[in-house]
Amino acid sequence: MLSERRIEIFRAIVYEFIRTAEPIGSKTLIDKYKWNYSSATIRNEMSALEEMGLLEKPHTSAGRVPSTKGYQFYTQYLMEDNDENERLKNSLQVVFSNRGRSVEETLMQSVEILAEMTNLTSGVLGPEATSQCLQDIKVVVLDETRALVIFETNQNHRESKVFALEDNVSIADLQKYVKILNDRLCETPITQIQEKMESLRPILQQSILQYESLFEAFSHAFIKFASDRMYFSGKNNLLNQPEFGDVEKLKQLLNMLENSSLWADISMGRGDLRLKTGDHSQTIWIDDMAVVTSEINIAGEESHQLVVVGPSRMEYSKVVSLVEYISKMIEEVYSDESE
Questions:
Q1: Alpha helices of the chain — where are they, by DSSP H?
Q2: How do strand 230-233 and strand 274-276 relate by DSSP bridges?
Q3: Based on CB atoms within 10 Å of each CB, which residue in 65, 66, 78, 226 is the most buried?
């Protein structure tokens, strides 16, 4: 049972651990909060909170730290509002003052601001490739040896690549190659294009004498297109967190930031330890890490996920407040422009 006293002690432990990154003992709480409880009473309550799974005891310390379950309980029931929005609003006014800036550019700059204000790693995740199909490939001739090839999906997402043609490949060869792909690959899911291209080798070989170089170039382009679009800012901020003084934990963190499959799961709403922590945001816990996410939806644009990544010991009230504020502001500004 969570009595008012246990909630008071638990809230204080979460706050002090977020602030100090050190296990919290009864003496620390008595010295800081001047409670009328005895040290023995606080220790007993801490033991009860540990039995409930909200606290855990590191092997090397007599103090306690919040568990993942504890952070979940804190963010769902005890987290208080944090009014950091005025500073953020002032910073974002500069970003939005240039109305000619694209949504992508605004997202990138907003991520930089968010990383600076939270002192954590922030990022933006683009739409998941598995939900998109190839709609059309266009060729724009730049000169005799170069052409811009534009790939478009059924969700109006575009990627482009400049092809510098080799001596034995002409613009006409490129156009013929693209026509074959358009005829045979239209409506193919992006993630299946590589496999289907392999089945087209005999047709390409018959139609284009030097097809190999084009085949390789298009393969690389589609691999890039199919990969999840991710942009992170402030990766070095996490190096200042005490949790990542351990080399193995640091490696785990870096692998996590590069794991496109993991971020695809997050952007698609998958994950066991996921909790709605605000009107416009969710928090996911992965091992010793926490990820606060908020989806950004703008009419006529693909959805994006704004994320902040940090240790489980993050200042949730501040991070959630900032992530929600920036997401809502981007939606409001660009929704106004589209009307």
A1: 4-20, 26-33, 39-51, 68-73, 85-97, 103-118, 171-185, 193-199, 201-207, 211-226, 247-258, 260-267, 316-338
A2: unpaired
A3: 66
According to the model, what pLDDT value does residue 250 have? 80
- Given a cut of 80, whether residue 61 has pLDDT beyond it is no
State both tokens at 29: 């709480």
Q: What values do phi and psi take at 201, rounded to 5?
A: -50, -50
- The domain made up of 130-226 has a fold known as Enolase-like; domain 1 (3.30.390)
- Cβ contact 273:291 at 8 Å: no
Cβ count near 163 (within 10 Å): 22
- Strand-strand pairing, 55-56 and 304-311: unpaired
Residue at 244: amino acid letter: F
C-alpha to C-alpha distance for 169 and 163, rounded to whole angstroms: 11
Q: Select from 180, 160, 155 the least CA-distant residue to 221.
A: 160
Cα–Cα distance, 305 to 200 (Å, whole number): 36
CATH of 4-78, one of 3.40.50.300, 3.40.50.1820, 1.10.10.10, 3.30.365.10: 1.10.10.10
| pLDDT tens readout for residues 86-135 | 777 777 777 777 666 778 788 888 899 899 989 999 998 876 655 678 89
Beta-carbon neighbour count of residue 235 at 10 Å? 16
Q: What is the pLDDT of residues 292-309, one digit of tens each?
A: 999 898 876 667 889 999
